[in-house]
Specification:
There is one protein chain. The chain has 309 residues and is α/β, with parallel strands linked by helices. The chain contains 12 helices and 7 strands. It folds into 2 domains: 14-105 and 213-302, Vaccinia Virus protein VP39 (Rossmann fold, 3-Layer(aba) Sandwich), CATH 3.40.50.150; 111-211, DNA polymerase, domain 1, CATH 1.10.150.170. The protein has a 7-stranded mixed sheet with strand order 3-2-1-4-5-7-6, with helices on both faces. It is globular and about 60 Å long.
């Protein structure tokens, strides 16, 4: 097996996110976003001989980073299916879960993956290379209304309607095949001095749609509430407001929309309670790793309240 590259991915808020798990040496923990293995290695440092760590990643490239440790198991799969995968491993409850959401540095830096605005490559953006839908399908086959909705909701782009129209018009004459073609089509709609920022938001929106990231996050959080023992911890790092709002709302209400149910005394029955305040990277960490710039860490503790899907 090839040795993992040290630059595969620099873990963000490493000490803070693992500390938030309040690890018990004999406990069972899950890292649902393995990547380069940085967070997993830190968790293992805090586990005793009887502790267990299960990690998830749907990107086959991450498998090269697997850790040779009898306490560790790497599962190739989407964390949207967290509960079923753990059940196959004989695990029905855990003491804590860590998630470092979004895209890895490796995925961005690999031109052929099509995640980066910097390279002229095929439109792909699949985290799971075997998935059916890529950025090509989204941009060439989705209708104008759906594209506008994706750009607005997932990229929070104010000119989503204009972008969608331009893409629809452009593909009347040709199929969009590369990131360079996409950049050229939409470049006139972005302020010149902020083009990179707006392109990043556009790519984020497409990537989220391609990988079903929002629905996967919702499913993972709901299943985490079923799996984590009372008193166990949830530690989640997000990188854009859409993800962070979902995490914040679920910790507060146990729901993504609507209002939580109240008991006879008017108390809400929610699966988690927040621990401490929102944590963001230090200036020093941002200087060393620019990807950390937008990171937000929320930590929660599983309550005694019953919770079921």
């Amino acid at each position: 097996m090839n040795k993992p590259q040290p630059t595969y991915h620099i873990p963000v808020l490493l000490k803070e996110s693992v500390k938030g798990l309040d690890i018990k040496p004999e406990g069972t923990y899950v890292d649902v976003t393995f990547g380069g293995g940085g967070h997993s290695k830190e968790i293992l440092k805090n586990l005793g001989p009887k502790g267990r760590l299960y990690a998830f990643d749907q990107d086959e490239d991450a498998l090269q980073n697997t850790i040779d440790d009898p306490r560790f198991t790497l599962i190739e799969g989407n964390f949207a299916n967290l509960k079923n995968y753990l059940r196959l491993e004989g695990v029905k409850e855990i003491d804590g879960l860590l998630a470092d959401l979004g895209i890895s540095s490796h995925q961005i830096n690999m031109p052929k993956r099509g995640f980066s605005t910097r390279f002229n490559e095929k439109l792909d953006m699949r985290m799971n290379k075997t998935a059916d839908i890529s950025a090509f399908e989204v941009l060439n086959h989705y209708d104008e209304y759906t594209l506008r909705k994706i750009f607005s909701q997932y990229g929070e782009l104010k000119n989503a309607a204009t972008l969608a129209k331009s893409i629809i018009k452009a593909r009347e004459n040709m199929s969009l095949k590369t990131t360079g073609e996409l950049n050229e089509i939409v470049s006139k709609h972005f302020p010149k001095l902020k083009q990179n920022k707006f392109l990043a938001k556009l790519y984020q929106a497409i990537r989220i749609e391609v990988n079903g990231e929002i629905e996967a996050l919702k499913k993972m959080l709901q299943q985490a509430a079923l799996l984590i023992k009372p008193g166990g911890k949830l530690s989640v790092i997000s990188y854009h407001s859409l993800e962070d709002r979902l995490v914040k709302r679920f910790i507060r209400d146990g729901l993504f929309e609507g209002q939580p149910e109240k008991d006879f005394y008017g108390n809400t029955q929610v699966p988690f309670k927040k621990v401490g305040k929102l944590i963001t990277p230090s200036d020093e960490e941002v200087a060393e790793n620019t990807r950390a710039r937008s990171a937000k860490l929320r930590i929660a503790e599983r309550t005694q309240s019953p919770y079921q899907l």
